[in-house]
Design brief:
single chain, alpha/beta, five-stranded parallel beta sheet, 10 helices, 45% helix, 10% strand, globular
């Protein structure tokens, strides 16, 4: 392609970038009025959620016991509206109705719709109900996060107060995103749970898939580089250090060579397990209750309860 004529070059480039073949799998066709979930709005949702879960540490700094109910009420109402909007966007994204409708119209087909029923109205009602279910779970989410704060405080001699843990420690920021995202995942909300945990990944360096199951009193010391896979099951009173990977050993494929989705492929860590820095635990194996996994080692087989595994020098 000659670069002598800027107009011609731009035209040819735009045509190439707009070619349907080049867009295969990379293009989400919008129905008017149904935007994708907004990263900026989800950031605001997490700011509000943290202000509700840890009042005084996030959000309005001047909140006190006399104004807390009013302030949480204000936050909860805004959270309801923003969550409804974003969950609705996620449901629209996942439904495929916009793309399917466009394809049918291109083929000259007319999509039959039940009388007096608006698919968008149904999705919005579902979004509103789901947002309220999540908000109703906030007291339980706070209780879980409170155990995580205790675990972080008891696990770090350098920590001087719970306030320091809540304000400064990346594990609490990552877990607040994860625990909210996990509830949305359980409620069947598409896309948004993963966006929330990836926001925490960018903020803290801690990568937790929203589908992972994590018990109470969980903590990660330092945190940077930790990876927790989608099918991990983590018990209560578990402690990880920086650089730990709880990953998959292999990816089974079907007859066409495509990865098989939805099968358990990550580790199970039972209660009171400690995993030291840069350890890698792979596959659907069980690390028994009370085990200690030393630093800089690979574990690919089950460990019996109350056993230790260290790298030999």
């Amino acid at each position: 392609m000659s670069l002598q004529d800027p107009t011609h070059t731009l035209t040819r480039t735009v045509e190439a970038l707009s070619d349907p073949e080049s867009l295969r799998g990379l293009f989400h066709q919008h129905q008017e009025g149904n935007p994708l979930p907004s990263g900026k709005t989800l950031e605001e949702i997490m700011e509000i959620s943290r202000a509700i879960l840890f009042p005084g540490y996030y959000g309005v700094p001047s909140v006190n016991i006399h104004t807390i109910q009013y302030q949480i009420g204000v936050y909860a109402e805004r959270l309801r509206r923003l969550l409804t909007e974003q969950i609705h966007a996620g449901l629209c994204f996942a439904s495929g109705c916009a793309t399917d409708k466009a394809v049918k119209e291109d083929k000259g087909e007319k999509e039959a719709e039940p009388e007096n029923v608006s698919p968008d109205r149904n999705l919005r009602e579902e979004a509103e109900a789901t947002a309220m279910r999540l908000i109703a779970r906030l007291p339980e989410i706070r209780q879980l996060l409170a155990t995580d704060v205790v675990a972080a405080y008891n696990g770090d001699p350098a920590a001087e107060s719970f306030g320091e843990i809540i304000s400064c420690y990346p594990v609490i920021k990552a877990l607040s995103n994860y625990r909210l995202a996990h509830e949305l995942y359980l409620l069947g909300v598409p896309l948004i749970p993963r966006m929330l945990t990836e926001m925490a990944h960018s903020e803290t360096g801690i990568d937790i898939h929203p589908a992972a199951q994590i018990g109470s009193h969980f903590t990660i010391d330092h945190g940077t580089g930790v990876v927790i896979g989608a099918t991990c099951i983590i018990g209560n009173h578990v402690k990880l250090y920086q650089g730990v990977t709880l990953g998959a050993k292999s990816f089974p494929v079907d007859e066409n060579g495509n990865p098989i989705k939805g099968i358990p492929r990550h580790p199970i860590l039972q209660d009171h397990v400690i995993v030291y820095s840069n350890a890698t635990i792979l596959g659907r194996i069980t690390i028994g209750e009370g085990c200690v996994v030393g630093a800089n080692i690979w574990v690919t087989e089950d460990m019996e309860p109350k056993t230790k595994k260290y790298k030999k020098s």
